[in-house]
Amino acid sequence: MTMSSYHEPTVAKKTGFSVRSLPSWSITLISVSTLLVIWELCSPWINPLFGSYPSQIFRSFIAMMQNGTLVKAFVQSIQPFLVGYGLAALLGIPIGLLLGRYRVLDAAFGIYVTAGYATPMIALVPLLMVWFGLGFAVKVVIIFLLAFFPVCINTCAGVKAVPKTLIEVGTAFCASQSKIMRQIVLPATLPYIMAGLRLAVGKAVIAMIIAEFLTALSGLGGIIIHAANSFRTAEMFVPILLVMVLAIVLEKLLALLERIVAPWQREIAAGGH
Amino acid sequence: MSHVELKNVSKTFALRSGGTSRTTRALDNLSLNINRGEIIALAGPSGCGKTTALRIIMGLEEASSGSIRVAGKEISGCGLDRGMVFQHAELLPWRSAVDNIRFALEAKGIPPHEIAERAERFINLVGLGHAMHHRPHQLSGGMKQRVGIARALAIDPEVLLMDEPFGALDSQTRETLQMELLDIHQRTGKTIIFVTHDLDEAVLLADRIAVMVQGHLREVIDVNIERPRNDMRAIRSSEEFTRKRQLAWDALHGYRDEGDAAPRPATSTAAPLRAFA
């Protein structure tokens, strides 16, 4: 008897509802659906010229899927995005590693990376159009320029944060410079590299849309401009939301990739509670 | 011939603070001969230069002047004739225990087909066969340091260098590892140079204790406790242990063994008790 009465509060606590016991994804889902419901409920007061609401946007989405404009635009946009972003990662990571590791290189070229990161690259678009035309190439260049610097800067900062003693382990055991780079510096820097790649997704998505606005109107950015110019506001929202979803999906994929390539990091880090 | 020979080794560091630059002398004319198969302790308070001396012998730092010979050959930089055990083990966190040992073997250029067998042999030598696939964060402090020792031994160095290897461990783990180190020394006959601020540890493990204060070698104390030193309890309660510990303490604090135990500071600048604070 005494036992059961002793245990009572614990049982009550366990059966009671607590937000803390929910998995993170379900909390996110509740948050998003609540927002959508509130937005939808506001529809009577929304003028379809100046705004839109979820059900209307969804109808436009279905229509655009059926006539093929959306898929065509998406394919048009994603190609320069992947090429530009891929190049940024492919060059940003090794250059960042070298700048972080070798003081002389950093002193000679680090300043350009800092400058490049701080410069509003969009301001260069008119010039880039003169150099690269209005087609595929100029879009790749714009996306590359916005995505490269966060990757490079983060990688470089990560290398500088590698504990000196870990490098000394390599030195003490006479590991070659390339072995120290590949097997000590690179893995120790991975969390920073992944953070840079995730930041770069946001930058690259912005670059993709801006490039389509400012050069030849095409892709998802083209749809946004055309729809806005003819006051088809719901239609305008479709590519905007699609780009948002794209950015979130890519970001999550990179988070997943980080767990695969740097599993120890999750074990060490405290994370949020 | 001595196995490791330090001759007039000095080290000065440049300190820059607020535009002014001054130099500080971490090691002042250190000369020390270490015999083959001997365990020698570099003991002293923090900042006395003992770790600097060890790092210079390892080749992680360069002496400002003087020379270091290992087995008759003057060293330049790191070499596989010396194996380093770091203060906090410093295992690569993304590699399992056994893979941390493989790292050293790969760096040494051991043929790939021998690496697996050899790494396993050394992880077993330190009694971690059951945990060899664990990553460092899954290991306790003592286990990490065991891996650190195995990694240094795996490259079969002539000299084992240890930088306060047990300083960060709890006292029971420390005692176990001290016993294991004595056992490993008994079996391998390696020359071992270790840094410590723990005089008990120095007397228990070492054949000689080099007492260092403020970059100077103040005294070298012979510890005549027989090997193998298996019975820690007997050693700790022995007269030789107490006497040598006292001698080391006296040397550290600036007293001279002159029978009357009259206090006499070795230098006028250092207060005797501050030296060990």
Verbal overview:
The complex is a heterodimer of chains A (273) and B (277). Chain A has 12 helices and no strands. Chain A has 273 residues and is mainly α. Chain A has a single domain, classed as MetI-like (MetI-like fold, Orthogonal Bundle). In chain A, helix 8 packs across helix 9. Chain B has 277 residues and is of the alpha/beta class. Chain B has a single domain, classed as Rossmann fold (3-Layer(aba) Sandwich). Chain B contains 8 helices and 10 strands. In chain B, strands 6-7-8-3-9-10 form a 6-stranded mixed beta sheet, with helices on both faces. Chain B has a 4-stranded antiparallel beta sheet with strand order 2-1-4-5. In chain B, strand 7, helix 5 and strand 8 form a beta-alpha-beta unit. In chain B, helix 2 crosses helix 3 and helix 6 packs across helix 8. Chain B is globular. The two termini of chain B are 37 Å apart. Chains A and B meet through helix 8, helix 9 and helix 12 of A and helix 2 of B.
Question: Count of helices of chain B?
Answer: 8
First-last Cα distance of chain B:
37 Å
* Shape category of chain A: flat
User: Would you tell me which CATH topology of chain B applies?
Assistant: Rossmann fold
Could you name the ranges of chain A where pLDDT drops below 50 across 5 or more consecutive residues? 1-9
